[in-house]
Specification:
about 190 residues, mainly alpha, Arc Repressor Mutant, subunit A, 2 domains, two-stranded antiparallel ribbon, 2 strands, disordered C terminus
């Protein structure tokens, strides 16, 4: 029976690689998904602050500040000092940022549509439920509150020879190393 069990891990890894291959066909014109979500939030909440973006994205204000700095340099957002609080910035999306977010959303919606081609609504819901259960089974309590970007940095911290895309943010390496040493595997559930 053990020999005939499907190799789900291999299939998940292949799915991850195929998603990356699909996204690669769009080249540099595609912004990272985290920036897309930030730009969508800024567009819906014109004049919001970086703190509000951080709360919405459930990431640290420092992480948002770095992303905003990159998006400002690329011409996707404009930062203006708040009138009532000189330490805070109001954010506005530019036409370039709006277009970049819309293009990225179209690509990711297309990816999802392609992945689920031929699936019924019930099968889509079941897939979502099963993947959520896989995540819950592997996710230690210590990382449950981390978003994917923070989890990626945590995973990359002690990874020797990480490629450029997988390198950890040097400013985040210290806290991530501490967090990594505190992570304990969950005990297997008794079925």
């Amino acid at each position: 029976m053990e020999k005939n069990r499907p190799r789900i891990g291999r299939k998940l890894h292949r799915l991850d690689l195929l998603i990356k291959l699909y996204l690669r066909t769009f080249g540099d014109e595609l912004i990272p998904p985290s920036q897309m979500r930030m730009l969508e939030f800024i567009e819906k909440n014109d004049g919001c602050t970086q703190t509000e973006v951080a709360e919405e994205m459930q990431v640290s204000p420092a992480s948002v500040a770095q992303s905003i700095k990159r998006m400002e340099a690329s011409g996707c957002v404009i930062k203006k000092v708040c009138a009532g609080n000189l330490r805070a910035n109001n954010l506005q999306i530019t036409e370039k940022g709006s277009l970049a977010a819309r293009n990225c959303r179209v690509v990711f919606d297309g990816l999802e549509a392609r992945m689920f081609d031929g699936f019924s609504d019930d099968e889509r819901l079941l897939t979502d439920e099963l993947i959520s259960r896989l995540i819950k089974n592997l996710e230690p309590d210590e990382v449950e509150s981390l978003d994917n970007a923070e989890l990626k940095r945590l995973v990359s911290v002690d990874k020797p020879g990480a490629d450029k895309a997988g390198e950890a943010d040097p400013s985040a390496s210290e806290p991530a190393s501490e967090a990594a040493s505190e992570i304990k595997p969950r005990p297997k559930p008794i079925i």
